[in-house]
Amino acid sequence: MPDKIIVVEDQPAISAFVQTALEREGFTVEVIEDGWQALACIRQSRPDLVILDIMLPGVNGLEVCRVLRQMPTYVPVIMLTARDDDVDKVVGLELGADDYITKPFNTRELIARVRAVLRLARSRAAGGEPEHLRIDRLEIDLTGRTVTMRDQPVDLTPKEFDLLVLLASHPGRVFGRETLLERVWGYDYLGDSRTVDVHIQRLRRKLEEDPRHPRYLLTVRSIGYKFAKR
For a tag on the chain, would you pick the N or C end, based on fewer CB atoms within 10 A? Predict the structure, then answer.
């Protein structure tokens, strides 16, 4: 069965462009113009991916993303943002979006982002043997994809979790930003290294007692990041 993608976009020219590009690649596509209608459709049809514009009638895309992340079934989300609107990008990532595409974009970029997000979603869904990482009072359940710090649950987005696991699995090893982009976001990811910095900052706020003086997630100047040795 082809992957089903719901495109939530109220500008006909953009939605038609996206729908045509995706259908040429073999995807099944449904276009919805309203945020509330999109939520109802997603709950009912459980698509493999949602492409979500931020500016929508009824309820904006950020609110739609927030509601989606409260649902028991995980649905990957790629957000469409205006050119160079870093605030929307950061807020979208904070709410749990898997990726974003900045308008205007071309077919190559769209398909690359879609395939990368779907590939990572399938990899997460494949599961594996139960496994945990324990570092001091930080515990990471690799199978259940949950994190606790000082016996308290920590709510992480999928990318935050994947980034934390990669670093914590190799304590003391320095990872450059480009390497982290490739390992966590995939080789097809077309974003820049600021994405890594944003996610590290968010992880520190959620995990470190003093984010300004981190104990676990350490910066290596001019190179990237590492997880402190145990």
Answer: N
